[in-house]
Structure formats: structure tokens, C-alpha cells
Amino acid sequence: TRSQLARLLRLNLPDIDITAAVTTRVGLNVTGSSQISGRDSVPGPWGAYCPPPGATVPGIRDSSGNVTTSGACSGASCITGTPPIQTDPTVSSTTFTQFGDISFAELAAAANKIVGGTVTGVSPSTLPGPPVSCNYGSSLNWGDPLNPLGKCFNYFPIIYAPGDLHMSGGIGQGILLVGGDLTVAGGFEFYGPAIVLGRVRSTGTGGHIIGGLMAGDADFSVSLLSGNSVVGYSSCAVTRALQGSATAIPVLERSWAQLY
Fold first, then answer.
1. Which pLDDT tens digit goes with each residue over 89-107?
2. What is the largest CA-CA distance in the chain?
3. Which residue among 1, 40, 64, 69 has its CA within the 20 to 30 Å range from the CA of 199?
């Protein structure tokens, strides 16, 4: 006789503590025409894939109280949120390295892309087929956040840089993990959570991060957002990225079920 068994699985999602547009541990200097917004937003073409926006969160959540603003952002005029700046001493190094049952190292080990140095030209990529399909194997394909009809619209890779990373231009989505410092220029756009263990520098034609930015500042230096950098909170961008990159693991108890 034969019997057929099924194994019960559950999605293992990291519990990333993004409760502000920007979360820092050492401090942040915001200048130029930068914009930081804690208003929950739905990315332009995602309306059919997101619930209505939720409550507004802090623009900046920092443990040190060392947030400075200057230039066009003097008086924190470029920061919106409830409150615009929140000093939260509970933010610690583990905020950036432990996400529920999943650690930064475990997320990094599950990365679809390993990058480093200066990266340019990130953009959606497809294979000609037939049928046309998303080119998951391209190191520069980080999904397609702006085209709901695109083959890579639902592709949310985990991207890991073990050391420093310099992003210049391009567009992507997913979960971005940086073990060193992150430098952004050239109008790079990213949708989802970006978690940086070092500091962040966004200068010139700065980066646009829609979802949430976390900068642990491992070397205790202050991060800098300048130029026309934009960081906007989006619970939908975070949720879609986490769900899209989740891994299936067996249920610990009674994971097997007999079908017949």
C-alpha cells in the first residue's frame, strides 16, 4: 500500500522594526533640499496592491538626540512626521541586527544578490522567452517597482553588501542590507527597507528610499542626508518587500499530515 504525506510550512518573515522614515542610533545631519517624511505613502503605481495609508510615524527616530538641520532644512522644516524628530533611547545596536527570530546575518545568508564597491545601472531585466520572464539571474536586476505589468514587478530580492556600498543611479526594490557604509548619489531609487550597519551619506542628486531607512552607525559617525535626498515611510513598500522575500520553513510541531 501507499500513503501520501504533506509537510506543513510557514513563511518566515523578519520582524524589521521600521516605525519611522529614518531610524538612527548615533545621529543625523540633514541639509540641502532633502525631504524626510513619516507620512505613510503608497508608491505611485501600487494603488491596487496596497491598503490605504496608515498612521503617520516619526520622520526621524534617533537614540542620541543628535539630529541637526541646516540650509533649506533649517529648523527641521524638511522633516514631517508625528513627531518630526523622536528621541528614543530604546534604539540599540540590536535594533539593526535582530528582527524577531531572524538576525541580520541570517537575512544576509539568504541574499539573492551579493554586491560591493560602486554599483551602477541597476534596472529591471527580462529574458526574451517565449514566454518573456523576469531575469532573476542578473546581478543588476533588483525588481521593477514602477511597472505593475512588468515581469519583475513582484520580484523582491534580498541584496547584501558585506562592506561599503556606493550606489549611483538605478532603481530597485526588496530588502537592502549593508554591512559597512552606504553612499548614495545619482538619483538611485529603492522601494523597501534599507538596513545599514554603518553610516549613510546621500549627496548631490541624492537617493530616494521609499519604505524605511535604518542606519546603525557602527563607527559612531553621524549620517548625512544632503542634496535632494528623499526618504519616505511606506508601510506597503516594507510589507511587500518582506512578504516577497520570505522563506518557507517547516512548522516545528506536527509538520507532517497524511493525505491518504
1. 999 999 999 998 899 999 9
2. 78
3. 40
